[in-house]
Amino acid sequence: MTDDSTVATIEDPALPAGTETHDTHASAPGLLPGELRPHPSPFQYVMVAVILCVITALEVGTYYLPDSFPRALYITILLVLAITKFVTVVAWFMHLRTDRPIFRRFFVVGAVGAVLLYSIILATLHVFE
Amino acid sequence: VYNIPFTSVTSFILLMSSLTMVLALAAIQRGDHRRFRIWLIATGLFGAIFIAGQIYEFTEFYREGLALKTSVFGSSFFVLTGLHGAHVTVGIIWLLTLWGMSMQGRLGTADAERIEIAGLYWHFVDIVWIVIFTVIYLIP
What's the CA gap between B58 and B52, in Å, rounded? Predict the structure, then answer.
């Protein structure tokens, strides 16, 4: 996703000249607060939407696989497709790939926490047995 | 009990509303207020179609005997999808408010961050549905 080396640097008047700091509030001109790079172009957004359409079609197609298809593989395929869609929307439409890395870390911590909580609940309901 | 083709279409519409939302943000960032309002109202409209589909689905399930108190499945299904639908409804009200403000000239290019925040809420509702659609509908 985002490369830490591309963090926009802001001159702090309180520091000696040439000292670089990572201000969490200010942004480079033309960018919203917390952003490192410009958003994708409308054409890129449309291309991302096309990819999401294809993945959704694959998901629905997978649903109609015959009952003889291995269930573990079926679930794995659907989860991989869902995760791909999830990450694509978060990275491109929610602009996490152009935001400062701190936002990505917060999001990942929250997402991992949610998956852990959901897994614990499923385990208590004996879903994995 | 599921009507997968129907739910797939409404899921697809919600997914496309995320596209119109980012196009609305891109429009206001370049000062194109006319297109901003078009994309914003399109996003709200897609959300409304999704909600209409959910109401239809709930009604069909109820007619077939699945209600909130029928079983653990019924409770889980209606609470999970109903809470999501409530959040989509809040998002639609938010979008309509922004659209109204724009019509009154109270929303300028400098307010792009407000649109970004509303967009983040909308996309979050979308990604939650991506998970619900797979886990609840496609994985029986």
Answer: 10
pTM for the full model?
0.85
CB pair distance less than 8 Å for B18 and A89: yes
Alpha helices of A37-100 — where are they, by DSSP H? 42-63, 71-88
Cα–Cα dist A128/B66, whole Å: 26
Contact B2, B10 (CB under 8 A): no
Q: Is A114 on the interface with B (CB under 8 A)?
A: no
B72 touches chain A (CB under 8 A): no
d(Cα B41, Cα B1) in Å, to the nearest integer?
33
Instruction: Work out the number of other CB atoms within 10 angstroms of the CB of residue B131.
Output: 18
> Within its chain, how far is the Cα of B93 from the centroid?
11
Please check whether residue B113 touches A, CB under 8 A. yes
Per-residue model confidence as pLDDT tens for chain B (140 residues): 789 999 999 999 999 999 999 999 999 999 999 999 999 999 999 999 999 999 999 999 999 999 999 998 899 999 999 999 999 999 999 999 999 999 999 998 889 999 999 999 999 999 999 999 999 999 87
Rounded Cα distance between B10 and B16, Å, is 10
User: Whose structure tokens read 């409308």?
Assistant: A42
User: How far is the C-alpha of B102 from the C-alpha of B111, rounded, in Å?
Assistant: 10
What are the backbone dihedrals phi and psi of residue A11, each rounded to the nearest 5 degrees, phi first? -70, 125
In angstroms, the CA B59 to CA B78 distance is 11
